[in-house]
C-alpha cells in the first residue's frame, strides 16, 4: 500500500541541510529519511536558499509562505460560484473539473483535489458543501485508508450466531445472496443471486458494477414488496460488495448474516444454485447484453424445476404456499 503524502518537517529539513553540506548524494538522503529521491530533489529546487547559518529554517519559511497562499476557489468568486452551482446539481468534483477542462469559454481550470480541499475547508464546512458530495461525509476519508474487516462485519453478524430455525430451514423468509462474476473482459458487470433457504426460490438481478451501496439499494427495491416475514434475513460471504449491509436493516428491516472468512461454502443453497446457473451463464457470457426478459425467463425455468428436497414440488409452488400461509388469518 502506498504511503499517504505528508509534507517535510523542520527536523527533516535540518537533516537535509546537514547532509547536503557533507556532500551526501540525494539518493542516500532520501533512503535515510524514508522519502523518494524526487521529494528531496524537489525540496532542494523549490525551497532551498543557500543561507550558511540556518538553511533549513529558510527552506521551512519558504514552504510555509507558499502553502499560505489563498486557494484558487477563494481568490476567484466566479469560479467558486460555478463550482458550488454544479455541486448543487449533483455533480462530483471529478465531473466538475473534467467539464471545465473542455468548456471553451471558461478562463480557469482546476483539478478535483482543489474542489475537495475547498469543500472541507472552514469556509466550505460553514456552507455545508460536504452534504452535496456523492458520499456526503462530514469529514474527509484518508486517501489510502482501509476499514478493518472486523468493523465492517462485526462478530455479532457471524453465521455462528444465526438462529437454529434458519440453520435447519424450518423458518420461511431467510435468504442467501451472492454475486456471479464473469471474465475480466466483462468488466464489473455481474449477476446477483438470491435463494430462499426453505423453498429454494431464486431471484436473479443483473448489475453493471460491484459497488456495495447500489447493490443493496437494488435488493431493497426488489424485496420490499414482499411481506416482512418473507424477507427476515440474508446470508452473505464477506466480499466488499456487501459492505453496505446496514442499508438492508435500515431500509426494510432485514437482518444480514455473514460466513466465516474464506468460507463461502457455508451458504450452501446459493452456491449450489450458482453451479446450476453456470449452464445458462458461463463465464464468457456478455452480461451487459442480458435483457430483463431473459433474466425473468431464466428465473422461471429454475423455479419451475421440481426439487427432490421439496418432495418434487417446484420452488414456485413451495414459495406460493408459504406466502398463502402468511396471509391466512
From TrEMBL:
Family matches, as PROSITE patterns: INTEGRASE (PS50994)
Gene3D superfamilies linked: Ribonuclease H-like superfamily/Ribonuclease H, Winged helix-like DNA-binding domain superfamily/Winged helix DNA-binding domain
The Integrase catalytic domain, residue ranges: 159-323
Pfam families registered for this protein in UniProt: HTH_38
The UniProt record lists the keyword Ribosomal protein: no
Protein name as it appears in the record: IS30 family transposase
Keyword annotations: DNA recombination
A GO CC term attached to the entry: cytosol
GO molecular function, one term: nucleic acid binding
Ion transport listed as a keyword: no
Amino acid at each position: 500500500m502506498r504511503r499517504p503524502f505528508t509534507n517535510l518537517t523542520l527536523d527533516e529539513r535540518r537533516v537535509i541541510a546537514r547532509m547536503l553540506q557533507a556532500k551526501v548524494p540525494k539518493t542516500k538522503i532520501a533512503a535515510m529519511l524514508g522519502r523518494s529521491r524526487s521529494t528531496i530533489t524537489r525540496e532542494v529546487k523549490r525551497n532551498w536558499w543557500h543561507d550558511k547559518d540556518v538553511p533549513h529554517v529558510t527552506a521551512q519559511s519558504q514552504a510555509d509562505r507558499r502553502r499560505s497562499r489563498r486557494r484558487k476557489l477563494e481568490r476567484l468568486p466566479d469560479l467558486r460560484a460555478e463550482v458550488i452551482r454544479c455541486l448543487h446539481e449533483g455533480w462530483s468534483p471529478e465531473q466538475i473539473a473534467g467539464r471545465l477542462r473542455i468548456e471553451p469559454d471558461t478562463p480557469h481550470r482546476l483539478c478535483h483535489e482543489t474542489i475537495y480541499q475547498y469543500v472541507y475547508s472552514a469556509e466550505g464546512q460553514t456552507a455545508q458543501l460536504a452534504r452535496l458530495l456523492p458520499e456526503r461525509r462530514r469529514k474527509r476519508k484518508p486517501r489510502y485508508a482501509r476499514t478493518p474487516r472486523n468493523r465492517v462485519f462485526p462478530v455479532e453478524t457471524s453465521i455462528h450466531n444465526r438462529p437454529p430455525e434458519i440453520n435447519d430451514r424450518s423458518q420461511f423468509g431467510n435468504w442467501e445472496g451472492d454475486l456471479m462474476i464473469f471474465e475480466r473482459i466483462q468488466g464489473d458487470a455481474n449477476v446477483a443471486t438470491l435463494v430462499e433457504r426453505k423453498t429454494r426460490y431464486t431471484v436473479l438481478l443483473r448489475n453493471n458494477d460491484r459497488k456495495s451501496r447500489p447493490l443493496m439499494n437494488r435488493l431493497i427495491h426488489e424485496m420490499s414488496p414482499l411481506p416482512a416475514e418473507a424477507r427476515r434475513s440474508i446470508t452473505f460471504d464477506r466480499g466488499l460488495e456487501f459492505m453496505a449491509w446496514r442499508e438492508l436493516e435500515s431500509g426494510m428491516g432485514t437482518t444480514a448474516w455473514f460466513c466465516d472468512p474464506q468460507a463461502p461454502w457455508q451458504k450452501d443453497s446459493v452456491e449450489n444454485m450458482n453451479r446450476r446457473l453456470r449452464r445458462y451463464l458461463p463465464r464468457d457470457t456478455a452480461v451487459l447484453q442480458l435483457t430483463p426478459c431473459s433474466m425473468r425467463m431464466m428465473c422461471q425455468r429454475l423455479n419451475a424445476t421440481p426439487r427432490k428436497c421439496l418432495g418434487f414440488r417446484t420452488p414456485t409452488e413451495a414459495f406460493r404456499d408459504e406466502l398463502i400461509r402468511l396471509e391466512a388469518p
